[in-house]
UniProtKB/TrEMBL annotation:
GO function terms (MF aspect): NAD binding; phosphoglycerate dehydrogenase activity
EC number: 1.1.1.95
Name used for this protein in its record: D-3-phosphoglycerate dehydrogenase
Spans traversing the lipid bilayer: none
PROSITE patterns: ACT, D_2_HYDROXYACID_DH_2, D_2_HYDROXYACID_DH_3
Length: 588
């Protein structure tokens, strides 16, 4: 049975194995039936009745090892396939069947893979680094990419500390030697870390935890991170300095940045030359932050006393000459490999995956604006209003969109840093109705940029007498349109101005917008045409300045207005324009 989409309201859904009462309506006496394997049931409210449909489960591919606790969360809601060690072409062949993909660092989710992922809604990284995912390609396709940034911080921190201490005391080398039945005590003379200076490049979650532990060992900690304030570092007793100064003063250098163009090869031939003789270098972040060739040469030349590496430019680093050096200790990307961390990241990413597949959002999205969680609830009604205003404005203005300005006033000025989130929803509203491709919060900004639409955002305390005010000004090749809206208490939202006309318009359902001359009979004639065509008027707003001057009328109507009726309305005397606008998420 096909039901008109607006009539459907999801009551609940259940995964395969659940017991439900089938039949239409299902509250009539009947029998219970088990939801078949591979299907989920969705119950809809349809008028007074509750109806049900079986739908195929969403399908999730897990292409790197994921802790059982995460898999269990997934299996309770969706169909899960775990297929590790897939080659690129194997992955491309099957990826089109899946709604979500979960990976660690072992899968190269490149543009080719993403291009083949036609149904994909979510890519989850069970860990921090997303450098193995082409986030731009995913963004372009409107795919949410999320990671699990908190779950493995302590694992990576403890691994860094273990590497630093092993490096200082030659533990791996001594261990290997003794296991060969050698007893070479003088060969493995170490150095103390006490009172040495640790230079931390990248003072994020792991960098800060490393500092805390190094301080407990009476090391002096200095750090470089362009995005962390001196005050923040001072709270941990760490001195922030430039990277150049850090390289000059550190006895041990550890890197904890993402791998991005700015951090690629920051440890290179030139920067090593400025370091102390006998410096030790640790990388438990990402291969590529250190130029491995330069590191090899500097160790060979005796400039660098040793290195501890968990990550490599090529993984596995089978061809790396660094593996041949005695004073280089290595682990095979084990930073996050603890039972605790793997449980944390698997659960985090599995929950986010299910949230997204159910139509919600993910907690740690990396390709949509992050807003502080304490702002999310407060900004939700504004985001919804902005999207509806966008839909309204673009349909009323007509024409090809060239610029969008979003102005946030009054109490919204307190959320200045988070308004990008609302702007993306406004853009979704503006673009989604007129484009064939799906537009969502992930790709809205990208789609606008790609189409040469200029987007700007202003935050002001001015709100024209309202507590809060959103104004969206758009320019198209047919002219300009300005729509303002506000959110009252309990999330009630209204469009309060269209152009220079004041309104009190509920931005819902189907709207007819007319520009006409304010004179007796015009509104009546329009109402007659609608009545004749069985279109019920649910509400009416008229904005005008003076009688007999141009006025604006917006009618809330209960059903779509067919094109011939719009044409008939346009032909009425006194009416200069008539536009139909849908504030639902249907394409126009
Ligand atoms: N070896 C392993 O198994 C693991 C590796 N990692 C890696 O460790 C690294 C750090 O992870 P987290 O601390 O969780 O990330 P984070 O995002 O909390 O910290 C990264 C820090 O780098 C800073 N940064 C950005 N650009 C910089 C630049 N140009 N110069 C200096 N600092 C810059 C940021 O401001 C931020 O404070 C990431 O690359 C992550 O992928 C994380 C977990 C496990
Ligand atoms: O979280 C990260 O950034 C890591 O590097 C951990 O990688 P993994 O999940 O162990 O392949």
């Amino acid at each position: 049975m096909i039901l008109p989409a607006p009539c459907l309201r999801v009551m609940m859904s259940g995964a395969s194995g659940a017991w439900v009462l089938p039949g239409i309506p299902c509250h009539r006496p009947g029998f219970y039936k088990k939801v078949p394997a591979g299907k989920r049931i969705i119950l809809f409210k349809y008028g007074a009745d509750i109806v049900w449909v079986f739908m195929a489960n969403a399908r999730v591919l897990v292409s790197d090892p994921l802790a059982e606790e995460g898999l269990a969360i997934l299996r309770a809601a969706v169909d899960v396939d775990v297929k590790t060690d897939l080659k690129e072409d194997e992955l491309c062949k099957i990826i089109g069947d899946y709604d979500a993909l979960l990976v660690r660092s072992g899968t190269d989710v490149n543009a080719k893979v993403i291009g083949a992922a036609k149904k994909m809604k979510f890519i989850g990284r069970a860990g921090v680094g997303v450098d193995n995912i082409d986030v731009d390609a995913a963004t372009r396709m409107g795919i949410i990419v999320a990671n699990a940034p908190e779950g493995n911080t302590l694992a990576a921190t403890e691994h860094t500390m273990a590497m630093m201490q092993s490096l200082a005391r030659n533990i791996p080398q001594a261990n290997a030697s003794l296991k060969k039945k050698e007893w070479k005590r003088s060969k493995f003379m170490g150095v103390e870390l006490n009172e040495k200076t640790l230079g931390i490049v990248g003072f994020g979650r792991i960098g800060r935890e490393v500092a805390k532990r190094a301080k407990a060992m009476d090391m002096k900690c200095v750090a470089y991170d362009p995005f962390i304030t001196q005050e923040r570092a001072a709270q941990l007793g760490v001195e922030m300095m430039s990277m150049a100064d850090l390289f000059k003063v550190a006895d041990v250098i550890t890197v904890h940045t993402p791998l991005i163009p700015e951090t690629t090869h920051v440890i290179n031939e030139k920067s090593i030359a400025t370091m102390k003789d006998g410096v030790r270098i640790i990388n438990c972040a990402r291969g590529g932050i250190i130029d491995e060739k330069a590191l090899y040469d500097a160790i060979k030349a005796g400039k660098v006393a040793g290195a501890a590496l968990d990550v490599f430019e090529q993984e596995p680093p089978t061809e790396s000459p660094l593996l041949t050096l005695d004073n280089v200790i290595v682990t095979p990307h084990l930073g996050a490999s603890t039972v605790e961390a793997q449980l944390n990241v698997a659960v985090s990413v599995a929950k986010q995956c299910i949230d997204v597949l159910k139509g919600g959002s993910a907690k740690y999205v990396v390709n949509a604006p992050m807003i502080p969680s304490e702002h999310t609830e407060a900004l939700q009604p504004f985001a919804q209003l902005a999207e509806k205003m966008g839909r309204f404005a673009v349909q009323v203005a007509g024409g090809r969109l060239s610029s969008v300005e979003c102005i946030y006033g009054g109490e919204l000025s307190a959320y200045a840093g988070s308004m990008k989130f609302v702007t993306r929803l406004a853009l979704k509203g503006l673009l989604d109705p007129i484009l064939q491709q799906p537009v969502n919060i992930v790709n809205a900004e990208f789609v606008a940029k790609e189409r040469g639409i200029q987007v700007s955002e202003t935050v002001t305390e001015e709100a024209k007498g309202f507590k809060n005010l959103i104004t969206i000004k758009i320019r198209t090749d047919k002219g300009e349109e300005t729509v303002s809206g506000t959110v009252f208490q309990k999330g009630r939202s209204r469009i309060v101005a269209v152009g220079s006309y004041t309104m009190d318009l509920i931005p819902e359902g189907h709207l007819l917008v007319s520009k006409h001359v304010d004179q007796p009979g015009v509104i009546g004639r329009a109402a007659t045409v609608l009545g004749k065509n069985n279109i019920n008027i649910a509400g009416m707003q008229v904005g005008r300045f003076n009688p007999k001057e141009p006025a604006l009328m917006v009618l809330n109507v209960d059903s779509p207005v067919p094109q011939p009726v719009i044409e008939e309305l346009r032909g009425l005397p006194g009416i200069s324009s008539m536009t139909f606008a849908k504030i639902s998420d249907e394409k126009i």
